[in-house]
Design goal:
Largest sheet: none
Shape: flat
Number of helices: 32
Radius of gyration: 30 Å
Mean pLDDT: 82
Helix content: 55-70%
Low-confidence stretches: 375-394, 493-502
Distance between the termini: 84 Å
Number of strands: 0
Length: 550
């Protein structure tokens, strides 16, 4: 056996990462025959450092070798991590090329730090990979509406989106360090998942994101922004532009993406603001057969027509046409939407439609009978029925008690959003928060301390904090002392003693808020869910408005 063969045999089984580094460094200058052998040895070693050696020269390798490198997801992830953390600019560009054309969502979290790389080309390559991955995920979701797929395939798309969203959330948190505007735009495509993170960033006065997004907002006008535009309807500084853009949308794709984001219509504030869309152009595509809308999305059309700012007679005409359709899901949605219009003439129309013997007509007839027997009710009727009598109306104290109970039952590491909600409405609940500083249960006192542990709130609850200087629990005493010291040089703030605001207790909105809090207490709603927290914030803002802040 030749000595060189003995050398390669030893390199094949020798210690990592030394052997892998020797092989990788020899690869660029090796003659073709030996380069091929080096590559074979690195592939055969199948470890993170051998994959690092291959990735450092990825663009110089043959398509067949590149495919083998990408085929092993675990080694690709580990090798990519090593190169991005410890390689030079040239090798990082080689490694990024491995995920450029078909970026795996599960690896995108590795690229978020690379957005702050010292090399401009590396930063750009990382941003391009993240954006391309986002495009692929959205395209895969769109295909689910058009094609029959297995549950496993649908679940794989859902998991891919979750991986990508986690990476985008990190990119948002570090935006003011990397300032990649293209990545910010990509994040806005996923507002359904990232609404809280996005608006926290855009509402931060010191953040560059607000200015950059405002400058480019209209040029980014794309169907992918549907979720962001709907979410923006809740934000006064963005609402006018969002409505103008939505008003001008006029293609079938615009219609489809809005229907995909129909869950935003669950928000009462967004539903109200949609009335500002006065017969938008894309609404002309809502024809009786909805041929431009995928079958899976068609049942959502009546819900949109119900809330758009179009003439009532036009709403009735469109909905009546869909009641006559042979699409069972669309038919039912149209019946419910018609009844929500709360027009006395509607029931007569439904009775006429239900005269035939078809299954859909029989459903329509059942609905008419159920309405007459008060077995089902419209949104207006549900609000009226759930609205308590004035003397039984849920007070702000009851709201606070329920929310406090939910917070107490939530794991400490998961209750951050709930604490923020209480802080945001501390103006309404000043007295109740102060009372919990005197609670015999130390868990109440600790939670009260967590809530007022910001400079602003510590000032307003300074006296309550001072009263804890003799608390029997050492940890509570120490934390209270730390907070008092942190504000010792600040002037007294007397807002704590201002009277609580006078609220409109007798309203359907208060009843809805009370019902949501009760569902959270009983576990029917997940108190840590971003969607539930978002709904809770919206309801509190609508009920308490500006009086909520201290």
């Amino acid at each position: 056996m030749r000595l060189v063969d003995k050398l390669y045999d030893w390199l094949l089984v020798g210690p990592a990462p030394d052997c892998d580094r020797m092989l990788s460094q020899a690869l660029p200058t090796a003659e073709p025959e030996w380069a091929e052998r080096i590559i074979e040895v690195l592939l055969a070693r199948r470890c993170d450092s051998s994959w690092r050696g291959l990735l450092e020269h990825y663009q110089d390798l043959s398509p067949e070798v590149q495919e083998k490198i990408r085929a092993d997801g675990r080694l690709l992830r580990e090798g990519l991590s090593l190169v991005l953390r410890g390689g030079g600019s040239a090798t990082r560009l080689h490694a990024l090329a491995a995920v450029r054309d078909d970026p795996p969502p599960s690896l995108m979290y590795l690229l978020t730090d690379t957005l702050r790389d010292a090399d401009h080309e590396v930063r750009t390559a990382a941003a391009q990979a993240i954006t391309r991955c986002a495009e692929n995920v959205l395209a895969a979701e769109a295909r689910l509406e058009q094609e029959a797929v297995s549950d496993e395939q649908a679940e794989a798309v859902r998991v891919d989106r979750a991986h990508l969203v986690r990476a985008l959330a990190e990119a948002l948190h570090t935006f003011d360090r990397h300032r990649r505007v293209d990545v910010l735009e990509t994040c806005l495509w996923f507002t359904r998942d990232l609404a809280d993170e996005i608006w926290e960033l855009l509402d931060t006065p010191r953040s560059h994101a607000n200015v950059l997004a405002a400058e480019r907002f209209r040029t980014w006008n794309s169907p992918r922004l549907a979720a962001f535009l709907l979410s923006a309807l809740k934000h006064p500084t963005w609402r006018r532009d969002a409505l103008q853009i939505l008003q001008g949308w006029d293609t079938a794709e615009h219609c489809r993406v809005l229907f995909r984001e129909s869950r935003f219509l669950d928000d009462p504030e967004i539903r109200r603001r949609l009335s500002g869309l006065q017969a938008p152009r894309w609404a002309t595509l809502l024809t009786p057969d909805l041929e431009d809308v995928p079958p899976a999305l068609r049942p959502r059309a009546p819900h949109w027509v119900l809330h758009l700012g179009i003439e009532p007679f036009e709403k009735i005409d469109r909905l009546t046409a869909w009641v006559r359709t042979t699409d069972e899901a669309l038919h039912r949605a149209a019946v419910y939407a018609l009844a929500e219009l709360n027009d006395p003439d509607i029931m007569r129309r439904l009775e006429r439609i239900s005269a035939s013997e078809s299954p859909l007509a029989r459903f329509c007839a059942w609905y008419v009978r159920a309405r007459k027997m008060e077995l089902v009710r419209t949104r207006h009727e549900r609000s009226a029925r759930t609205q308590p009598e004035p003397e039984e109306a849920p007070s702000s104290d009851v709201d606070f008690a329920l929310l406090w109970q939910v917070c107490r039952r939530t794991e400490p590491n998961l209750r951050g959003e709930l604490i923020d909600v209480i802080r945001e409405n501390a103006g309404v609940w000043r007295t109740r928060i102060r009372n919990n500083f005197r609670s015999p249960d130390p868990r109440d006192r600790i939670l009260a301390l967590q809530i007022v542990s910001t400079q602003e709130l510590a000032l307003r609850f300074r006296q309550s904090l001072r009263e804890l200087d003799k608390d029997p629990v050492t940890g509570i005493r120490n934390l209270a002392e730390t907070l008092v010291k942190s504000i010792s040089n600040r002037p007294e703030d007397r807002l704590e003693e201002s009277p609580p605001p006078v609220l409109d207790e007798d309203s359907a909105e208060r009843a809805d808020l009370h019902a949501l809090l009760n569902r959270m207490v009983t576990g029917q709603e997940d108190a840590t869910s971003p969607e539930v927290i978002s709904d809770l914030r919206a309801m509190l803002q609508h009920v308490y408005g500006e009086v909520g802040s201290v």
